[in-house]
Design a protein that fits this description.
The structure is a single chain. By secondary structure, this protein is an alpha/beta fold. It has a single domain, classed as Thiamin diphosphate (ThDP)-binding fold, Pyr/PP domains (Rossmann fold), CATH 3.40.50. About 40% of the residues lie in helices and about 10% in strands. It contains ten helices and five strands. A five-stranded parallel sheet has the order 1-2-3-5-4, with helices on both faces. Helix 1 crosses helix 3 and helix 3 crosses helix 9. The longest helix has 22 residues. The protein is globular, with a radius of gyration of 18 Å. The two termini are about 15 Å apart.
Length: about 270
């Protein structure tokens, strides 16, 4: 399948959603809601060539770094990487099995995985440290990307990292927040209000844009804008998404944070993702 236009990228996103859904159903475990909400972001980054990475040379010193901080949704990243040839698609059959590299949270034994994540709130600090090192080494043509969940932004370490990035003028750091408005317990604004979310990031000295997190074209345009900006400030894209995106009975429903659909529901899921 060619990936030369946005229509094809949308088809790729549907394919990724089907594989993610089937893998979780057959494994009997996995965080399906948050995986489905971030797939269009991942497709824009990887298939839309926003990230400079290469499956044939995954450890190249010239690569961009992608920190998948919302580690519980790792199955979405695994499927993307397997489709791009970082490792065999057969590995997906081992998802969440004993002694498997394809675990519930990312495992650096897999090519393309930069950090072990899952304890939320650490990805932005790690990404900031890598971006700072690249500044010291004068590697001007590489970027560090960090994908976080919105519930993750309750963590104080996120805002400590935000201050660090602004203080050190890390304009090679681009964060993306998967703003699906749901956590494992409830809607974010019912637990602890994140809004006004954009103003918070602005007050920490970041460049801030919002986007429809399911519009691949829009995501690409705004990330490309950040890549070219280089104004001495880190950047964050607030990607407004739906938890469970693409499957009608899952969208915006708390139970599908880590609920696992039955095999009987798989037919309906496949129909939604045609």
């Amino acid at each position: 399948m060619k990936v030369s236009n946005f229509k094809n990228l949308d088809l790729i996103a549907k394919k990724i959603r089907r594989i993610v859904s089937e893998t979780i159903v057959y494994a009997g475990k996995g965080h399906i809601g948050g995986a489905l909400s971030c797939i269009d972001i991942l497709v824009a980054l990887y298939f839309g060539k926003l990230l400079n990475v290469n499956s044939k040379n995954p450890n190249s010193d010239k690569r961009d770094r992608f920190i998948f901080s919302k580690g519980h949704a790792s199955i979405a990243l695994y499927v993307v990487l397997s489709e791009l040839g970082f490792f065999s698609k057969k590995e997906l059959k081992k998802f969440n099995k004993a002694n498997s590299k394809i675990a519930e949270h990312p495992d650096t034994r897999l090519p393309g995985i930069e950090i072990v994540s899952g304890s939320l709130g650490h990805g932005l600090g790690i990404g900031g440290g890598i971006a700072f090192a690249k500044k010291i080494d004068k590697k001007k043509n590489t970027n560090v990307f960090v994908l976080m969940g919105d519930g993750e932004c309750y963590e104080g370490s996120v805002w400590e990292a935000a201050m660090f990035a602004n203080h050190h003028n890390l304009d090679n750091l681009i964060a993306i927040v998967d703003r699906n408005n749901l956590t494992v317990l409830d809607f974010t604004e019912k637990i602890i209000k994140l809004n006004p979310f954009k103003k918070k990031w602005l007050s920490f000295g970041w460049n801030v844009l919002e986007a429809d997190g399911h519009n691949i074209n829009e995501i690409q345009k705004k990330i490309n804008y950040f890549k070219k900006l280089r104004n001495g400030k880190p950047s964050v894209l607030i990607a407004n998404t739906l938890k469970g995106k693409g499957i009608s009975f899952m969208e915006n429903q708390i139970k599908w944070h880590h609920g696992v659909p039955s095999k009987e529901l798989l037919k309906k899921m496949r129909s939604d993702l045609k």
